[in-house]
């Protein structure tokens, strides 16, 4: 072994936290010569340094001129055993260097050394393995989680049982790779699918788009392969030929992008009750606790909403680049385990309705999106029916006899689900609640039910327009900072303040929910613990803890500081809500 490399390995090795048991290399039993004398005994697999054809991004940068070069600082410089030479790509991101090993190999260890003077540029780099030359089936096998000293090799143990023909190092965002040396170790074998690499304790969602294209549209899908590694690396969901596009409103404008994915087949993803093709990846860019939606959904469950969307935190790798901590959630749609309204309607009072395919304005001017029946399936008669039904509800609510239990608004609207949704929104402190309200009608004879809760990234004191919520003299919907329209404000007001029976029911539901909500801060602590490993990487990828983003109030400069804002808010909200419902 090269002395310069050998003596350094043990001392400076950086080992990945192995999430599943290390697989022993099991020697294949040697056949007895008398049984099959013509066959050579099979050699047991031996781990060794691997060599192959150097592959990777072709365009390098010649720093002396800033121009493209195919010879200076080329990818070969990452495999020349010289710490003073390095691969620097011309493009700043999405660039890589690796090896075509010719045959499948199980990788057991990778080595790397940053370019001298550029020690930070390895942080968040990913090693991947693939069996397609374009890396469309690539899976991460190791991640560099810290900056590293130059002039020495650093090693990461790899614990992935699948054999790969192609292996690579993908530089982190905006690093131009800047890698001085790379090494791969392993043994020739097809391997198996018993163990994969999971970046943190959270599941890893890997998205490889066709030709490594960026997702730039909220309308047009592009193709990608999606892989979800979970259960400490022991489970892999493979979803080839998945459609992906952007999603969201304000959140789409952030550099960390939210996505909608549509599998070819239905899947129960990560233990979800729903079995569906469409899923969302929530980016949580403006929510620095990375948990506000998760928390609001927990409030929804504790308040007794019929259906709360499935939502679980994950790490996302997009075309070989770590993108941070996301939430994988149900799409709000009609389906088994989602909104159960197969022969009915799903609508949303939605300030962004004008951007949707199917929507209407109510008589009082509320914009309403129709989400089900689907855009391409809804008939003119169905659209007319739901618009008319919503109008009848509105007319009843605005009439002088609106409180009448038989002929008032109760004829069209379920009061309990409306009140539960009201508590979820107001207890969580969501300024957006009456900007967007989901409702569904289950079959021809059913009334309109309110729910599910959705889009809570501005909740729990994350909106300077309503800060500090607990000092407001009234509910959020009735306050100056609220984004509720006049019509929705009147609607809520009539039900929770002017209808004595509904108001009494609100107090009852609140009192019944309070014991469960009073321990919510324990759930915040558990969630913060669950997210800890991932949040550290997330804020390396997006160093915004000291910046105001979107509607943030003053930033706290740390993850723990952001979480404590939520906890203080909840503690005070529990007593403040008592005061508000009794007013
Ligand atoms: Ca070199």
Task: Tell me what the structure shows.
There is one protein chain. The protein is of the alpha+beta class. The chain folds into three domains: 2-31 and 47-188, Sandwich (Jelly Rolls); 204-330, no CATH class; 345-582, no CATH class. Helices cover 23% and strands 25% of the residues. Strands 1, 2, 5, 6, 7, 8, 9 and 10 form an eight-stranded antiparallel sheet that branches. A seven-stranded mixed β-barrel has the order 11-12-13-14-15-17-16. A five-stranded antiparallel sheet has the order 19-20-18-21-22. The radius of gyration is 28 Å and the shape is elongated. It starts with a helix and ends with a helix. The relative contact order is 0.09. Calcium ion binds at residues 77-78, 80, 82, 85-86, 180-181.
Key words describing this protein structure:
elongated, disordered N terminus, binds calcium ion, eight-stranded antiparallel sheet, single chain, 583 residues, Jelly Rolls, alpha+beta, 8 helices
Give me the secondary-structure topology.
Layout: H1 3-12, E1 48-49, E2 53-56, E3 60-62, E4 67-69, E5 96-114, E6 126-130, E7 139-143, E8 154-157, E9 164-170, E10 179-188, E11 204-209, E12 222-230, E13 235-246, E14 259-267, E15 276-282, H2 292-303, E16 311-318, E17 321-330, E18 345-350, E19 359-361, E20 367-372, H3 380-398, H4 415-428, E21 436-441, E22 448-450, H5 486-498, H6 500-517, H7 520-541, H8 559-582
Parallel strand pairs: 11-16
Antiparallel strand pairs: 1-10, 2-5, 3-4, 5-8, 5-9, 5-10, 6-7, 6-9, 11-12, 12-13, 13-14, 14-15, 15-17, 16-17, 18-20, 18-21, 19-20, 21-22
Helix pairs in contact: 2-4, 4-6, 5-6, 6-8, 7-8
This protein binds calcium ion (CA).
């Amino acid at each position: 072994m090269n002395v310069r490399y050998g003596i350094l390995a043990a001392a400076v090795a950086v080992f990945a936290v192995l999430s599943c048991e290390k697989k022993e290399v099991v020697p294949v039993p040697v056949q007895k010569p008398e049984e099959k004398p013509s066959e050579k005994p099979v050699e047991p697999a031996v781990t060794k340094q691997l060599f192959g054809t150097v592959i990777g991004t072709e365009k390098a940068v010649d720093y002396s001129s800033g121009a493209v070069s195919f010879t200076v600082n080329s990818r070969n410089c990452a495999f020349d055993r010289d710490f003073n030479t390095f691969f620097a790509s011309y493009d700043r991101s999405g660039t890589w260097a690796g090896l075509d090993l010719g045959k499948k190999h199980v990788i057991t260890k990778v080595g790397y050394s940053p370019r001298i003077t550029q020690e930070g540029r390895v942080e968040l780099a990913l090693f991947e393995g693939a069996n397609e030359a374009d890396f469309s089936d690539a899976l991460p096998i190791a991640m560099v989680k810290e900056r590293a000293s130059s002039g020495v090799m650093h090693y990461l143990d790899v614990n992935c049982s699948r054999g790969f023909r192609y292996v690579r190092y993908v530089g982190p965002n905006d690093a131009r790779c800047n890698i001085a040396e790379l090494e791969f170790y392993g043994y020739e074998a097809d391997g198996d699918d018993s163990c994969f690499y999971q970046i943190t304790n959270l599941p890893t969602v890997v998205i490889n788009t066709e030709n490594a294209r960026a997702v730039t549209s909220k309308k047009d899908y592009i193709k990608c392969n999606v892989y979800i590694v979970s259960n400490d690396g022991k489970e892999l969901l493979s979803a080839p030929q998945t459609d992906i596009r952007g999603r969201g409103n304000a959140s789409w404008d952030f550099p960390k992008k939210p996505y909608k994915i549509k599998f070819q087949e239905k899947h129960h993803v990560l233990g979800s009750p729903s079995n569906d093709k469409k899923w969302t990846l929530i980016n949580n860019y403006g929510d620095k606790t990375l948990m506000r939606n998760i928390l609001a959904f927990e409030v929804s469950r504790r308040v007794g909403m019929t259906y709360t969307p499935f939502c679980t935190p994950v790490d996302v790798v997009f075309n070989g680049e770590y993108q941070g901590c996301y939430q994988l959630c149900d799409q709000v749609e009609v389906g088994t385990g989602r909104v159960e309204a197969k022969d009915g309607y799903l609508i949303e009072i939605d300030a962004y309705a004008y951007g949707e395919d199917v929507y209407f304005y109510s008589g009082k001017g509320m914009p309403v999106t129709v989400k089900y029946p689907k855009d391409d399936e809804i008939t003119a008669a169905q659209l007319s029916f739901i618009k008319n039904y919503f109008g009848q509800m509105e007319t009843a609510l605005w009439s002088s006899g609106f409180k009448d239990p038989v002929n008032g608004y109760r004829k069209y609207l379920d009061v309990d689900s409306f009140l539960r949704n009201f508590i979820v929104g107001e207890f969580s402190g969501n300024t957006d609640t009456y900007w967007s309200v989901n409702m569904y009608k289950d079959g021809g004879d059913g009334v309109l039910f309110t729910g599910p809760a959705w889009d809570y990234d501005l909740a729990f004191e994350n909106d300077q327009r309503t800060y500090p919520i607990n000092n407001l003299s009234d509910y959020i919907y009735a306050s100056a900072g609220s984004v509720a329209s006049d019509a929705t404000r009147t609607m809520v007001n009539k039900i929770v303040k002017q209808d004595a029976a509904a108001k009494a029911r609100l107090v009852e539901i609140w009192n019944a929910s309070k014991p469960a909500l009073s321990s919510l801060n324990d759930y915040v602590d558990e969630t913060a613990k669950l997210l800890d490993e991932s949040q550290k990487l997330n804020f390396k990828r997006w160093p915004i803890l000291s910046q105001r983003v979107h509607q943030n109030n003053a930033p706290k400069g740390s993850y723990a500081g952001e979480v404590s804002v939520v906890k203080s808010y909840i503690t005070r909200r529990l007593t403040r809500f008592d005061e508000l419902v009794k007013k």
